Amino acid sequence: MDQAGTTTLQPGHQSNGRLNGKPDPDPEDLLKILQALQAIYDPRSSNTIRQNASHYLEEAKKSPEAPSHGFTLARDKVQPAPLRHFGLSMLEYAIKYGWEDFLVEQQSILRKCVTELARSVDEKEPLYLRNKIAQLWTEIAKRCWGAEWMDMDEMLVTLWNTSLEQQGIVLYVLESLSEEVFTREDPTAILRGNELGKACVEIFTPTSVLVEFFPTRDTSVNVRHADEGWMRRLCVRLDWCLSNDYSKDERIRTCAIKVLSALRATLVWITPKAIHATQCVEHIFKALATTTVPLQKAAVEALYTITGRAHLQDDEFVEIICPMYTPNCITLLSELYSWARVDIHDLDDEKYALSKKLSELLSNLGNYAEAKSQLIPTGHDLRGLMELLFTVLKDPSLVISIPILHTWTKLLKHRDVKDAVTQFLGGMLELCSQRLVRYENLPENSDDNISLFLNEDFDTLPEKHAFLGNYRRYCVDIVEIITRRAPFEALQHILGQAKALLKNIYGELPPFQAQDFSKNAIPVLRVDAQISVIESSLRGYLKWLASQGGDPQEDERNRTAAQDHFQSWCMSILEIRFEDPEIAKKMVQLMVTFSTKALNDRPSFAITLVKYMLDFPDMDIPAHAQYSEAVKSMEQANALEMQRLAIVFANYFLSIYDELERKITEVLTSRPTDDKLRFGYMAVLYIIIHRSTSLDRSVQMTRLAEILRPVKEAWQTPELERSLSSFEAFLETLGLSHLREFLSSRQFHRIEDWSTQELDKEGQDMQADILSRCQQLPLRITRTLLAGATEKVDDCSPALEMSSALWADIIPIMLPNLLQLVKYAQAFNNPESWPNLPHELQLVVKRLLTDRFWQAGISRESKDDFFARVNNSKTTFEGYASTVRGTMRQIREGTYHILYGLTRFKDRFYGFTDLPGPLSESLFANAHALSAHHVSVLLSVATHLIEECPPNQRGHFLPAFVSSLFRVLDSKITAEWAANNKKISEANEDDNLGEEMKTESILRQLTYATVTLVASLLDYQRQGSYNSIPLPRSVHNPFLEPTSKHTHPSQPKEEIMWRFILFCPTILEPVLIFCTNTLRVRDSRCVGLVVKIFRCTFPHFKEKSAIRDFICVDILKAAITSLHEPYFVDVQKDLAGMIAHIIRLDQELPREVILSLPGLGNRPDKVDKAISLIMQQGGDRQHRAIVLDLLQGVRGVSIHEQGKIERAEPRKKSAVQEQYMEVQEQPRIVRGGSPQLAGVGEMLA
């Protein structure tokens, strides 16, 4: 057997250390190492002592004698286990970071040391030491197996036949090799991927399979020992374990679990023919029949791996998947699910984890049954599988249920399994109806089993919200699919069920009381779920209706019958009186949906609905604040619903126009109403005339102009002109000219909690005056009528042309004043607008401008509690501050809404000669002073202004606007991240982490929104197909060839946006600078997206230019700097891939940058070799590996990779569970102070 030799083992023979040749290490050195280890793990050690000990151990690993010392320590079983483990770490460091510097003979000695350690393990050896030895074996195998090391397979077989402990090492090596060669992004394995891949195929696959199915394979390199291969050996060993006393003997049980883990890793890549030849599926199924949960779970994971393989050929599907559909297997899976079910009140964590994984396996089997049902042989139990899937679907754990729910959305669409699923349709409809409840809004102390499981499964609210959103989406899909298959039966059942609920909403609950109003009350949640069912069934019906046409007469009879049923049901619902304003609002919205979608040719019902809304009794009770707010919200929603009806039924409403106008006037004069409701009703009348196609055009224009006359007049009053003549005049107009004196006289700076200090009478009068003056600005009426003129109007339609002509006279009058308004509203937040303030008042103003907001998943209180707190503080100092900042916010967002609407007029808006400069100045001059959230709102409207710009106006509008936008965004985001990082580094235990988390969350959202805008502008996903196409230049680009002029081909009429951006230096420069700085922000999602954008953009700059130099120096430096930091370990492969792209763009400049890095300046040969390999043909995976290998001394590593701690076993979510927890929408932020105000983000949604 090989023994470690006596040749010196150190790079360049600079050391005297000898393996087995030098006397044992100095006992004092060993004592220091042991003391350092004890210091690290001793909880009483200070941070300084711990850091010093860590530094000492790190230096010990780098010592030239480290390999010799490490081997001596590791093999000496008298030494303490931690010391032996550190000895193995010293060997690991030599293998990972010194392998290339060793001579071949030295590498051989190191290999023999590790194999000797593997042979010497025994039962008494701690498991973590055995695993570490196996890890070292794997590390060496990745570097020389199949080249210098040809007899590894023979050594593994020898170990395999020795003892269970040696088998454990072999299983670790086999599993690790499979994962690191075929699955993980391991740079070392990737660099030798072809050799290692072939070697793995050789030793795992039975010789008979290779000979039969791969007769022409390369056999010149012989790494194999014996014919059976590791797949067969593993299956045989699994049978041996199961036939012995695995339940009582932990060593055998552990061996069986490790065999299944090795099989799982192998089943990812091995040829299906080997799986079939070794009868692997049958062997694994035997493990399911045990009663040992870890063993069952390992077996389920192995089967899940098989069923998760994509692109199986038909014969492979029949050979390795179809055996799982046999009656015996289906019965076994059913029994396993029944046995593994858990009670949330007495939760068995192991069984629960098994149930989750079993659900994922069954989902895969169901998906295959849907995709290849025609290939499943007769006699297999497909019906039994469907029964099992339906049983698992009903599980109270939605995490277990959701993979099956997703599978049912596919099965129900498939005709070949129609008969097998028909019997489950009714039960599925009932189940989905029940589970459309918004569980995230149930009380925290709810004893509902589903809620309890959700609380167990989710640590954060955003994850829970995203998961439940996906679950509801699948439920809605199923209701829609079932309704499309059986529309009349489904609708009759659903509408009957809904009517029964609506007639007895409260059931066993107390009757409604206004003082107890809550948006998330149980009755509201029940009604909301029922409405979701009805809306999805209505979509299913409409799709069914659109698919008909075979028998027109029969189709018409069916449609008429359905409409009669819908109208009768709706009329019966309108007779029910809903005391809860939230329920009443939702029911009106549902009625309008029926009217505009399913009853769109029955105007009589729409007219009935309008009269119903106008006759609504006054429900307001001001004494109950939350209830009163809900009533106002319902009234405003009714006005919006009337607008929806007016858009569809304009011609019919025109016939009762005078009656509607009288009724609206009566409503407005009979009860207190605000401007929002008054202008909402005005918009209804505007829309009726505007959308009517029966009015004469001249009459139409005259009547619309008359409605718009107040808007035009309001924007040119002398009072408005004076109020916008200066910032001071603006403050005086809003009643804020004496704000400084008021804050000082009321000693705001001395009050710690403003919400506890009541305003005096003068303060409350000032507060009311500010609100009143703000309402006098012409923003509300303008945005409301502008929305009526532009929303739901097709481009180039007569209605939009009419609106454009009507607003053409208003825009030049309105726009200058509008821009001054937004400029001053933003300047209010700028400290430079408040000169000469005493220090204490500076702090007061800063605090006054800080919003209160609630954020899902971070705020500690519920949303209802947050709004209650805000409402209860309206007459306090905090309420006054909220009024002041809310007024400015209302002005800003009002102008944003108007600008948003004006974009519909295209050239009539964008064509103003002086628009870009003043607009940019107004929107961005003071934007740096806004909070990150308010900048996000500004960004959303700026994005819309960019996207809606007509192609013929891009050259005029975009350069100034986009460049100004990105300069302010880059400055703001960079500064905010710097402040955030500083705050984190200086944080202590007493800091308010909740506020910091909210601030950071908003900053992440702003950063991602900006990066998403860049992705949209440069359209990186579409660029890929143009990488090699020479682009026409709409703007001369001096960066391409500074010394020459180009003659360009004629520009296309509608140039693609990304081409325009790439070759407009005014825009491209700030965009590239922003993206470069974003590579340094601590947000992996943003960095990953920037990398994708860069990689698609770089190929356009292959020629020598200033931009290419910027890419090869500045962007490269930013990428390497991020690669250096441990925080970015999750995006290292993305950064490495981008670095490889930069090197392929220009070798010289990147070479200079890389040679300037520590440790590489004296290794030009290593750098040149890596660059040469990157320039050769190869895929991204290989290029990433080369870069990571080259920069391994530079790149940051996570703490577990550094060997400081073991990687913890987390409460792990599988890839499938992660799939259903993806947060597709940004966490919603709700501001305090003005809950009734909708942000621009909602407007754009």
Automatic annotation (TrEMBL):
This is ARM repeat-containing protein. The lineage of its organism: Eukaryota, Fungi, Dikarya, Ascomycota, Pezizomycotina. Residues 350-1201 form the Exportin-5 C-terminal domain. Residues 128-193 form the Exportin-1/Importin-beta-like domain. Keywords: tRNA processing. GO terms for molecular function: nuclear export signal receptor activity; RNA binding. The keyword tRNA processing applies. Residues 1-28 are annotated as: Disordered. Residues 1-18 have a biased composition (Polar residues). tRNA nucleus export receptor which facilitates tRNA translocation across the nuclear pore complex. Involved in pre-tRNA splicing, probably by affecting the interaction of pre-tRNA with splicing endonuclease. GO terms for cellular component: cytoplasm; nucleus; RNA nuclear export complex. GO terms for biological process: protein export from nucleus; RNA export from nucleus; tRNA processing. Gene3D superfamilies: Leucine-rich Repeat Variant.
